[in-house]
Amino acid sequence: MEQQHGALNEVNSFLDDVTQQIQYKPIRNEIRKELAAHIEDRKEEYEHYGIHGPEAWRKALAAMGDAVEVGIQLNEIRKVQKNSLSVLFVIALTVIGMIGTIRTEVSSGFYIRYTDLFYFFFGVIILLITYHFGYQFFAKNCKKILYALLSVLLLYFLFILVSVYFENYSLISFLNTSLAFALRILCIPFVVGFSYFNRKKKHLPILLTTIITAFILITSSVTFLSDYLIAANIIFIVTVYASFLYMIIKKLFGETKRYQIITYLVSLGVVITIFIISLLGDVKSEFEQFIYPERVASDYWDDAYNSILIRELLSKAEFIGPISLSEEESVNYLTGKWYFDDLSDTDIKYRMQFASENGIILEDILPLHYHNNYRVAYWILKYGWFLFFVLISIILTAYGVLFRMIQKINNNMGKIMALSCVIALSTQVIIYVLGNIGYQLGWFCTFPFISEGKCSITINMILAGLACSAYRYDKVTTEDNYNMIKGRRNKLFIGTIQPKN
């Protein structure tokens, strides 16, 4: 008995030495359990050949090798991965946004608003926090977070309906822009994650996805925000269903691929139908504003006219340097006289009051909120197409790094979540850039990390942080409650080797 106890002490000492080499402490107990199961298996093999008692334990332990060396090898396999390049690219895009904000406000003769810059710094903090803790928090609380977000979304739209009923529009204007967009974007990884966690339940994943997407689309319609939320709804649909299609292609569901594709197409058809209906009969006008804005432009306050103006100005932009306009052209662009033939003298005088004291400048001609909604177009007109190509190259490289990072993730749960985050970010970039070259889709969406604002910075930093965090913890987390010991090896060696807490 004493020899048996001594052998077990040797085993526990071996396990202590191994786990001390594991840098990421939360998985030390799991590794200890797995090694205990390995040693038990070896001990039983020796017993099968007639070696029993303490001798079987010692031989099993000797077969494992040097404890420190085993620990170092396991640490290399199960360590937290550094992902500095992806994080640095996101921060680099944020710096570009900060510089753009400062340059725009200085060029316009405004004082620098430090509240605008605050969100850039705050966003970086959010990125780093999410990068270090986001994925594990997501994996443990995905369902709860999704329910919380949907509850907030429901309460938010009920509040708007009540405000409309009582005609209290000041409260609506205070809430209906950034929050409506942000809630939709933030729901994306949790909807995808929730579907993945229920992947083994036959109809549940696609049914949940359809219901949640339909709910989000319907709430925008009944609260009269469908026009503003076109971009957000498109981003949501594209991201969620692209991620779902990836899960089908990778055979992550229990059913056959053919069956899943059929249900997927039916669900997508239902969602697209609801999306079209949610536009409240404005499908044709929204399409024309996107492709043929000249068909719907009625005055110089229209978004359609803004697209026409941007296309016209970009056609005259220089490759390097600011756009060159004559005094007559500047007057015509400022007043809208170049496009509208029926402007009265009163209209022209009204528009001329927006000219700067020292003459008409580019900032006077551009649409309102150009510093945020038309940031790319403004930089092209201010500094030339060359800067645009440099900026696009940086953006493409950044997102290329992010997609390459996703490709390296082995954990399916982490890969799906990271993929949904990066697709959501990429779709925003595409829609924003299209709007900046004269193809505006609904109201403007954000330009992740670069355009100013709470949603653009904070929410998108959470998405980027979650994606990078999934890669960071890819080797140290598992899908089923972080339990890496399956079948026979899930048994703890109770009464012999006790895993330490």
From TrEMBL:
Keyword annotations of the record: Membrane, Transmembrane, Transmembrane helix
Alphabetized InterPro entries for the sequence: Perm_prefix_1
Keyword Flavoprotein among record annotations: no
Transmembrane segment boundaries: 85-102, 117-138, 145-166, 178-197, 204-222, 228-249, 261-280, 383-404, 416-435
Keyword Ligase recorded: no
Annotated protein name in UniProt: Cell wall polymerase
Organism field: Candidatus Galacturonatibacter soehngenii
Lineage per the UniProt record: Bacteria, Bacillati, Bacillota, Clostridia, Lachnospirales
